[in-house]
Amino acid sequence: MGEVIRKKSEGMTSYDTHDLGLAIAFLTKGHELINLQPVPDCECNGYVFHFKTAPELKKLEEAYWKGHLFVDAKHHNDVSLELSERFAEVEEEYSNDTDN
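The structure assignment produced for this chain is given below.
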């Protein structure tokens, strides 16, 4: 389920998930990804997706886990390709940061 990974005192609230499929579903439904954070030590997919909060995200997530959330297949593919490019950018930035 979505969880707040940051403490509220850190000044930023978002709807967070480690789940790639859920992240793609949110993006396909038009929700804004505000940050993609690499988490190398995580046993998840290696990223945390931070979405701009919206009231419907919880319901979309529940529908996703129940198998009731449907998205347009072409849009899903387009979003997946865009996200793949974003992974490459984040990996490059992360690599540059850890090299310094």
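Interim note for the steering committee: Residues 1-9 have pLDDT under 50 and may be disordered. Residues 8-99 form one domain.
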